[in-house]
Specification:
- This protein folds into two domains: 6-80, Chemotaxis receptor methyltransferase CheR, N-terminal domain (Chemotaxis Receptor Methyltransferase Cher, domain 1, Orthogonal Bundle); 92-274, Rossmann fold.
- The protein is built from eleven helices and ten strands.
- The protein has helices spanning 6-11, 17-31, 40-54, 59-68, 70-80, 92-103, 120-135, 149-157, 170-176, 192-195, 229-241; strands at residues 109-114, 140-146, 159-161, 177-179, 187-190, 198-202, 215-220, 243-251, 264-268, 271-274.
- α3 (40-54) packs antiparallel against α5 and α4 packs across α5 (70-80).
- 30% of the residues are buried.
- Bound molecules: S-adenosylmethionine.
- S-adenosylmethionine is lined by residues 31-33, 81-85, 89, 115-117, 121, 146-148, 151, 204-206, 221-223, 252.
Length: 275
């Protein structure tokens, strides 16, 4: 890892190995996110923006600020989370659910999108399943949670670039989105009747949480890849506790629940059914 190289000076702030280690350890302690050495440049790029915004001269002062000011600590966490997401990501999960609605005698669709980022995941669930749920008269609700408060406000606002929904056909766009005009040209917004189906809440998955309800389905895709195995296993255990009998857990494309888990059966690509 580079330490005080000329390249760093060119970029503006001196970012030493000690700065990086302290910051990544604070992030890990709070969020469970394990930050590898190769994320040094990424940390610099994301956090240098905070220094500029706060008008701070160096990372030593920034660290003091993060350690002593809860507001900046929250901004720090928001800055270091990776929020990559998109509409209809991993679409085979939605196809599987459509099939389940048709084949199983479901009574409701109570869904939790854990690590929902800026909302594309919960809204994709609605776009894919709403009409079918209506046809089968299934009560439909979604809880969206994330650690990062910035993405949660984006999710509640539900405004997205038109480019991000270009793969949807005309009818889908017309049913679920409003097209922006004037200063909102180039953007679209999820219609309020669909926005209202999702309740958003901040929730740190590695803390001591308990929700006073059970879900038929939990999506936790591309979130636990950043966690160590022990943390991941504890969370999966809690998902089992929060799922109704035969409830479904969807993980991201490169994730699995681990070979020793006895709470779930693997029923499809990164799809698990509670025993
Ligand atoms: C890569 S995004 C995945 C978004 C979406 N699930 C998808 O697959 O498109 C990962 C999300 O997990 C959230 N996250 C990371 N650590 C978390 C934690 N400890 N508790 C809750 N959310 C967390 C991040 O803020 C980020 O928005």
């Amino acid at each position: 890892m580079p330490v005080n190289t000329p390249f760093e000076k060119e970029k503006g702030f001196q970012f030493s190995r000690q700065h990086f280690n302290r910051l990544r350890s604070l992030a890990h302690e709070y969020s469970g996110i394990h930050v590898t050495d190769d994320k040094y440049e990424m940390y610099y790029a994301r956090l240098a923006k905070r220094l500029r915004k706060l008008n701070l001269p160096n990372f030593t002062e920034y660290l003091q600020r993060v350690e002593n000011d809860p507001i900046e600590f929250k901004e720090f966490i928001n800055a270091i989370t990776t929020n990559v997401t998109s509409f209809d990501r991993e679409p085979y999960h939605f196809e599987y659910l459509k099939q389940q609605i048709k084949e199983r005698n479901l009574e409701s669709l109570s869904i939790w999108s854990a690590g929902c980022s800026s909302g594309e995941e919960p809204y994709s669930i609605i776009i894919n399943l709403f009409n079918l749920a209506k046809e089968y008269q299934l009560p439909f609700s979604i809880l969206g949670t994330d650690l990062d408060t910035d993405v949660l406000s984006k999710a509640s606002n539900a405004i997205y670039p038109l480019k991000s929904i270009e793969t949807y056909n005309k009818n889908t766009k017309r049913q679920f989105f409003l097209k922006g005009t004037g200063k909102n040209d180039g953007f679209c917004r999820i219609k309020s009747c669909y926005r209202d189906l999702v309740k958003y809440q901040q929730l740190n998955l590695i803390r001591n949480w308990r929700l006073n309800k059970t879900f038929d389905i939990i999506f936790c895709r591309n979130v636990m890849i950043y966690f160590e195995n022990e943390t991941k296993q504890k969370i999966i255990q809690k998902y089992a506790d929060h799922l109704a009998p035969s409830g479904l857990l969807f993980l991201g494309h490169s994730e699995s629940i681990g070979k020793d888990n006895t709470d779930f059966d693997n029923v499809g690509k990164t799809i698990y059914r509670k025993r």
